[in-house]
Structures are given as structure tokens and as C-alpha cells.
Amino acid sequence: MIAFSPTSGERKVVIDGGSDAQYVSTGHLLYAVGGAVYAVPFDIAALALRGPATAVIQGVRRSTVTGAAQFDVSRNGTLAYVPGPLSLAVTDRRLGFLDRSGATAVVDVPPGGYETPRLAPDGTRIALGNLGESTADIWIYDLSGSSALRRLTFGGRNRFPVWSPDGRQVVFQSDRDGDAGLFVQSADGSGTAARLTTPAPGTLHVPDSWSPDGRWLLLTSVTQRPELSILSLADRTIRSLAGSSGGSGRIGGVFSPDGRWIAYYEIPRFGDLVVFVEPFPATGAKHQIRAGIHPVWATDGRELFTTPSQPEFVSFRITAEPVFTFREGDRISREGVVGSTPTGVRNYEVMPDGKRLLVVLGGTGEAREVRVVLNWFEELKKQ
Predict the structure, then answer these.
(1) Strands 181-186 and 194-195
(2) What is the tens place of the pLDDT at every residue in 37-57?
(3) Cα 285 to Cα 135, 211, 219, 259, 296, distances in angstroms
(4) CA-based, 20 to 30 A from 334: which of 46, 59, 104, 192?
(5) What order do you get walking across the sheet with 227-232 strand by strand?
(6) Where does residue 97 rank: exposed (0-12), middle (13-18), buried (19+ CB within 10 A)?
(7) Which CATH superfamily is domain 94-361 in?
(8) What's the whole-number mean pLDDT along residues 184-211?
């Protein structure tokens, strides 16, 4: 978490980890880690911590759409929060389909800690992450229902699957060798995983999209300033995607089905996160779509789906020739669909027919109450 002075422009990291920070008049900085809220003495003038952090709320629910911790404090010290699990590990998510009317249908697989479902190019199989308390692995599921979920990865924590354009391989992030590099493995589980990248210390590589011609892999290099990079699969070299974002980083890049365009979103220094589309290879042209995150193309390349801050998906009709133009299409309710934070993962995919989205559905543990604590500042002052 970063403290920013609008007068001097100084940006200072005050806490490494956490979210949903707010300063209160008792002189404390409140922030959430997992399902707990912490308070730490904070010098607002010096932008510095003045003591250790203490857990002050154990068990706060996070939004399935934005990931935000559901708590707030009024100026007179009234606390309101939605109770939830202390651990963010979930095992009751379902895979599902979401049509354009907002109706959902559940895929016939057992509940799990699912994330990042990705369709094979032929639309018949899904690669997805399955998270446990201390585990993370990639699994494969055949949408015909002819076989059960099949575990693909073994060893370390493995996340963020991306299919090769021929559907024979899956690339993913793994910490099996102590870093967060990229590995590739046959989708049928034969053979062993081969390393593709070795990130610098303090850097994580997240695979985003494999080009239709099989030559390039878009990835996000995650550091203090995340940035889109491109990996040449011919010589295994990595370079930054051409052009400067002019902000705090670009993330979540996806190739268009014809490989001629890349959609991504920027995390700016100020203001809304914004989705952009630019040609590939870069020409210097850049098209701002609208505020949102996690863009993904329909298989015909004529529609781009995004996730704005509102609880809905928004699609845009794309015309690339003779000039690039776009217009807003459908808005689809995300009620019950697990979303993510801007720096988190994309939990949806567009089905080949363009009529449905493949999504992750939240579990049955829905919030049923809001707890209110009066004069909470008196309790906080004792910390």
C-alpha cells in the first residue's frame, strides 16, 4: 500500500501487502489482509508507521466481484462490516455458463477452489486453476462430460493456464524451482514440464495469451510496476511490449483471434483503469476503449468483452477495417459470478458460439447480515 502526497508528489510504500486502507481519526491506518482487518499506528504528517499492526476484526467478507473487504468506519467511530471467513481459501466455487440475459447454468463438476478457466482453441476442453489452503494446480476438463477432471501439474504451486494455438500444450506459472517462472507441458499429461522463463529476483511472470501463429507469448512481468512483455518462443528472449503506457503499468494482454491486435488494460497513476487496443506488431496507434479491466475477444474477433467497475460485463462491437472503430454492445449481469481485483486474475472466457460466457460462480456461503459496532473508536484506542 502506498501513501501519496498531492502537494509534493511523493509516493511512499507504507505496507507491503494488504488492501482497502483507510486512515481514521484515532491515528490508525486500517487495512485488510485476507479476511482480517488490521490497525497500525500511523503518523499522517510523516507518512510513517509508528508501531506494530494488530488484528482488530477477525473474519470480514470480501466481494466476489471486486475482491474488496466489506467494512467501513464513520467519522464518529461507528464500524459496519459483513462477516465472512478468515481464510480466503475457497472450496465451494462452481464452473458455470452465463448467457447474455444474465442466466447461469452450472457445469457438472464437483465444487472446488476454481479460478482462471481457459477454453482450448477448439472449445471442447477447459484448463483451469484449483486453489487449496496450501496448494495450487492446473486441471483439465472435457466439456463433453466423457471424463472426470484430470490433474495436469504436479510439484510446487501452479497457476494461470494458457493454451497453445493447436491445443496440444498448456503454459502456466510455477514456483516449483523457487521462482515464479513459466513452464509448458503437454495437455494430455505426457512428458514433463519444460521451463520457458526465469524471472529476475523480485519479479513474477504471469502468462496472458499465446499468439495464433504460435510464435509469441504475451506475459505480465509483475514487479512494483507491472508491465506487459512478449516472449519469443523461437529463441526464448523477452522484451517489453513496444510503447510506453504513460501510467503505472499495462497488464492482462490478449491477442485477437487473427493475431493482428492486442487488448490490455492500464493501471494508471491516477483515475480509472482503462482498456486499450493496439495493433500487433505495434505501429504507434492506440485505441482507448473505456474504463474497465480483463478484456477478452470473442472467437470471431468482432467483439471485445470487458469488466468495468459496475457489477456487469460489457461488450464492444469491433470493426477493424478499413479503420478501427468500436461501439458498446451488451451489458450482462455478473450477479453470483466471482470477479477479481484489477491486479488479480480474469475468471471468465467467451464460448465459441459467442452466446455464453464460461465463468466461475461463487459458493453458497452468501452474506446474510451486516454487523454494526457503536463507539468502536473507544475499543480501537486500547490497541
Answers:
(1) antiparallel
(2) 999 999 988 888 999 999 899
(3) 42, 20, 21, 16, 20
(4) 59
(5) 204-210, 216-222, 227-232, 238-240
(6) middle
(7) TolB, C-terminal domain (2.120.10.30)
(8) 95
